[in-house]
Amino acid sequence: MTRMIKIFDTTLRDGEQSPGCSMNLKEKIEMAKQLEKMKVDVIEAGFAASSPGDFASVKTIADTIKDSVVASLARTVEGDIDRAWEAIRGAASPRIHTFIATSPIHMQYKLQMEPEAVLERAVAMVKHAKKYCSDIEFSAEDATRSEPAFLARIFEAVIKAGATTVNIPDTVGYTTPDEFYEFIMKVKSQAPSLEKIDISVHCHNDLGLGVANSIAGVRAGASQIECTINGIGERAGNAAMEEIVMAFHTRKDILNCDTRIITQEIMRSSNLLTRITGVKVQPNKAIVGENAFAHESGIHQHGMLKNKETYEIMTPESVGLTTSMMVLGKHSGKHAFRNKLKELGYEVNETELEAAFARFKSIADKKKQVYDRDIEAILAKETVQVPKIYSTERFVITSGNTITSTATIMLVKDGKKIEKVARGDGPIDAAFKAIEKIVGRELELEDYQLQSVTEGQDALGDALVKIKGSDGAIYSGRGLSTDIIEATIYAYVNAVNKMIYQEMQGKADTVIEPVTL
């Protein structure tokens, strides 16, 4: 009989802690809805006690999501657990996820606690969490560098105290598949109560073994895997959800496991996360890389023409890829556009539809053909934006190899038009400096990327700009246009809007340092 493995997605918590992957509230909600659409079993919405912003996002996600368990991380501290419960109490299925380090090095140098004190704290806080809800997960941070006998003792104790899931994390990505399998089996042999509850594994990818170790954990009896979309996360990241899911899906004959994940939503989830964070996956990334289903070798192409199974072990369609072309044009109506969105799997309200349709018509006037990827880029841009504190009214750029580049830009704020002129080392630099003059502050540019969404001379330019705020946080903005200068200006203004919006929300002050399991 095929075993069903629960997928615990921590993209919004551990994943967001990855440098450059911060998300605002609206983006987190959009991502959470997509995870729910994929049928993720558990969504770890964040670390509610870490900051007012994290609390707000966890609470909003908990109040929004209906078909997945919503979890909040908490240290084994009463205040953290109280705050976590306050954030998730409105969830249809709430979970408190509490943790404490159990390895000798962490207990001595980080916690400065004796093992017995760690065990007592773990038990007391699981009991405290149990007062609030029935679904309690306990994690032993740095478990794979802990003593098996001590882990067995603490697991037996927290299960008796009410834990319903016990997580065995490879926090620093240190273990190997065979070693991890033997380690879990050894702990289980000394902690018989583990047979009564869900065993979870949370493997980091420091040695590139996150997915392999996760599967080894399942072989040893784990019934839940903690992972992230695109494998984002601290340092080298986490086990990639799409790789785990498709490994089970493709090799049921060997692994005898499956998940309830709707695999056709994988590419959309990957692309949405990329557009929100601005962090692309490498072309050769398994499952979601742009080369994952590409074939250039003549021998490979010949085999593919004869039978696709010669070089493809899964179909592109199984992960949500399609080769269909968007054939709507500038004469297409809103009804046809709405039908195309449904075909692509998007559900939008009337406000979002109006904005996306207007953007589509503008692009259709400039492009001969509008592709599915153009539509997805438009939707991603229109549905995860923050309020437009500044909007672009017009711009004029003069540039050449014999003159100094000059940018004249007019932005609108609160109905008032503001225009500034600046010179720079090239048109992009000049445009950025003009925007800085309008905003009234110097901004530190962290990253700037430009790529085409599709092929051809009339392809949409997709610009990504990352700036550093006064709080040290990184804010990313995207812009789309067939004019790459226009796309870049849109992206920069979008990043500025995000920064100001976050400052207005009071999210900049972080109370607790992020943690990773």
Summarize the structure.
The chain has 18 helices and 16 strands. About 2% of the residues have low confidence.
Describe this structure in words.
This protein is α/β, with parallel strands linked by helices. It has four domains: 3-277, Aldolase class I (TIM Barrel, Alpha-Beta Barrel), CATH 3.20.20.70; 293-320, no CATH class; 334-383, no CATH class; 391-505, Alpha-isopropylmalate synthase LeuA, regulatory domain (Double Stranded RNA Binding Domain, 2-Layer Sandwich). 41% of the residues lie in helices and 20% in strands. The protein is built from 18 helices and 16 strands. It has helices at 11-15, 25-37, 52-64, 78-88, 104-111, 115-130, 148-161, 177-190, 210-219, 241-250, 252-255, 266-277, 298-306, 334-343, 350-364, 372-383, 427-439, 484-505, and strands spanning 3-4, 6-9, 42-46, 69-75, 94-101, 136-141, 165-170, 198-203, 224-227, 257-258, 391-398, 405-413, 416-424, 444-452, 461-468, 474-481. It has an eight-stranded parallel β-barrel with strand order 2-3-4-5-6-7-8-9, surrounded by seven helices. Strand 15 (461-468) and strand 16 (474-481) form a beta hairpin. Helix 17 (427-439) runs parallel beside helix 18 (484-505). The longest helix has 22 residues, at 484-505. The radius of gyration is 25 Å and the shape is globular. Mean pLDDT is 89; it is low at 296-302 and 507-511.
Provide the helix percentage: 40-55%
CATH superfamily of the largest domain: Aldolase class I
Content-based structural category: alpha/beta
Residue-averaged pLDDT, rounded? Answer: 89
Strand count: 16
Give the second-level CATH assignment, the architecture of the largest domain. Answer: Alpha-Beta Barrel
* Cα shape: globular
- Radius of gyration from the alpha-carbon trace, in angstroms: 25 Å
Number of helices: 18
